Amino acid sequence: MQNEIDGDAALHEALFQPLSLGAIEAKNRILMAPLTRGRSDPGSVPNAMMTEYYRQRSGAGLIISEATGISVEGLGWPAAPGAWNEAQTEGWKGVTRAVHDAGGKIVLQLWHMGRIVHPDFLGGEPGVSASATTAPDHAHTPTGRKPHEQARAATKADIARICEDYARAAASAKAAGFDGVQLHGANGYLVDQFLRSSTNLRTDEYGGSPENRTRFMREVLEAIIAVWGAERVGIRLSPNGETQGCDDPDPASIFGAAARVCEELKLAFVELRQPGPEGTFGRTQVPKQDGLIRSIYTGPLVLNSDYTAAEADADVSSGRCEAISFGRPYISNPDLAERIRVGAEWAPNLNVPKSWYLPGPEGYIDYPALETV
Fold it and tell me: Fewer beta carbons within 10 Å, N or C terminal of the chain?
């Protein structure tokens, strides 16, 4: 977190150039990264408080929504939103309308958690993953933290059904008025579980070689593209080290293969989560893969996490990437882009991490904008 003024506003000029992310026109290169906040109503329905939260942050060049479940099977986080039924679609309409009225753009991040979904969310049935494996540590369930349990390996019928679930959620996002969608392919969730060898033990056409392990990702993207067109579809990947027990001894091979899929499908943008030493998910002392991915994928590249404004400006100015997505700074700085533009101090996060996920407005929509500080 940056708590000091980060220099003259002129130093950050590169961040305030417009950017085309496929067909999505961003007014600046400061994106809001997806942030799970756990404020949905029962039934995973977005509500008025969420509408206000996103409206407040509409100064971002593009908001990437919090991770949103594509199905009951794929959502294992209390009070996270969904995109599989009409009530959820109606709830999201209020969010997109508010963001657009404030001059912003927003895409919906499509999420299937795979083996991270605890059986408590599924009536006691196991979650589904690339293979029958168990995630480390604990799951957050409606009744508290519990150890993860072994998932079952997805059948080919499951894979086809899950691709249909992604397509259905993508259609829900379109009906709700989003500007596009992002596939969550990072952080040890289902797509990542298929990509990496520690969680993909399959011997069929979805396992083994890097090309086979990207097959599920490709099929999901193709299903989403059939709804939106590639020019409004992005993906998030986390190619740097272990996340939630999901790892690979040869990240260059698997993420190089993933980058080739993104290039062949002409995705609107690729976002890479590259956490620093204090990153949320697992170890980070491994070589970063953005240079490799940049050499393969020729579309807009977005880098994330733990950036200061000066670091963000430097990476965009140098051509390392086209934009930077900021996560936790957007929790306590609803007007982060404006603060960066004028060189103002960033407000610290208060009551963290407790307020990140607990219900209610405290630590959610009660952070003041710069002009009211």
Answer: C
The SS3 of residue 357 is helix
Strand 269-273 and strand 301-304: pairing?
parallel
User: What is the 3-class SS of the chain, one letter each residue?
Assistant: CCCCCCCCHHHHHHHHCCEEECCEEECCCEEECCCCCCCCECCCECCHHHHHHHHHCCCCCEEEEEEEECCCCCCCCCCCCECCCHHHHHHHHHHHHHHHHCCCCEEEEEECCHHHCCHHHHCCCCCEECCCCCCCCEEEECCEEEECCCCEECCHHHHHHHHHHHHHHHHHHHHCCCCCEEEECCCCCHHHHHHCCCCCCCCCCCCCCHHHHCHHHHHHHHHHHHHHCHHHEEEEECCCCCECCECCCCHHHHHHHHHHHHHHHCCCEEEEECCCCCCCCCCCCCCCCHHHHHHHCCCCEEEECCCCHHHHHHHHHCCCCCEEEECCHHHHCCCHHHHHHHCCCCCCCCCCCHHHHCCCCCCCCCCCCHHHC
Check: CB of residue 224 under 8 Å from CB of residue 110. Answer: yes
Contact indicator for 346, 333 with CB cutoff of 8 Å? yes
In tens, the pLDDT along 162-194 reads 999 999 999 999 999 999 999 999 999 999 999
- Predicted structure pTM score: 0.94
Assess whether pLDDT exceeds 90 at residue 3: no
- Give me the residue label for tokens 């799951």: 139
Report pLDDT digits (tens) over 314-350: 999 999 999 999 999 999 999 999 999 999 999 987 7
Q: Yes or no: say if 307 and 271 are a contact pair by the CB < 8 Å rule.
A: no
Longest C-alpha distance within the chain, in Å?
59
For residue 276, what pLDDT is reported? 58
Catalytic residue list contains 189: yes
Residue from 189, 297, 307, 364 carrying the catalytic annotation = 189
- What percentage of the chain exceeds 70 in pLDDT? 93
The residues pairing with 62 across neighbouring beta strands, listed in sequence order, are 31
